Amino acid sequence: MTQEPHPCGKCSFFQRSLWRPVAGGARATLTRSFTRREVETGGVVFHQGAPSDGVYCISKGLIAIRSFAPDGSSSLLRLAYPGELIGYRAFMTGRDHRTEAQAVLPSRVCIVAQRDAKQVVQACPEVLARLGLRCADELDRCHDRIHDAARVSNKARLAQVLDRLMAAHGAATGGAISDQQGDADRITWRMRLPISRQDLADILGVQPETLSRLMTRLEQDGAMRASGRWIEMPFSPQKRAV
Question: Where does the record place a coiled coil (predicted)?
Fold first, then answer.
């Protein structure tokens, strides 16, 4: 009997897909409930406090993971890029979502419905192992953020965040920025920040006024130049995200 095509088979992230090991009858179950959803900027993938309705994989765009306080205020916890899973904690625990997922850019999300996803996980231990690795990776990221907050200066952490954003969203300009000492100009890259400055402050765990001072210090160092949400900074193409 011919094996039906894998629903994730044409995705550029297939090799590291959670569902890659699925075969046989489990693949039919996976295919039955597999859907793709286009999400416009500002669209919500799932709400905080809502029950889990499946597992989500980002195949295009950028998703902000936010936490809301009882007074309605929110904080940006992290950004999720194509190839990443979101919503799997609620799926694994059976609890409501503790965060909200909202599209920052036009995005596409692939969804496997809750009931069928559970059947596939039970039928394919390799999928469960991959879920475990995703959880471990998330814990490692949290550990790194705690370590950096304690050991790395806020200015250096801001530079790191801007560098990662430039890798994903920037492009070479052909222009240059002179450094503080007036040394030779350096080729720069330019991007429009995909998130607000408030969100950027949330990622760093600082107040917006502190972020403004940090950005001023980076500009004085010749490390960047900012105008509204546009950022220019020296950048090596070798750092571009794969």
Answer: none
143 and 68 housed in the same domain: yes
Q: pLDDT for 170-211, tens place per residue?
A: 998 866 555 554 444 467 899 999 999 999 999 999 999 999
Total tally of structural domains belonging to the chain: 2
Please report where in the chains the tokens 């994989």 appear, as a residue: 57
Residue 183: give its domain's CATH number.
Answer: 1.10.10.10
Question: If you count them, how many residues does the chain have?
Answer: 242
**Is residue 140 domain-shared with residue 180, that is, in the same domain?**
no
pTM recorded for the entire structure: 0.85
CA 145 centroid distance within chain: 15
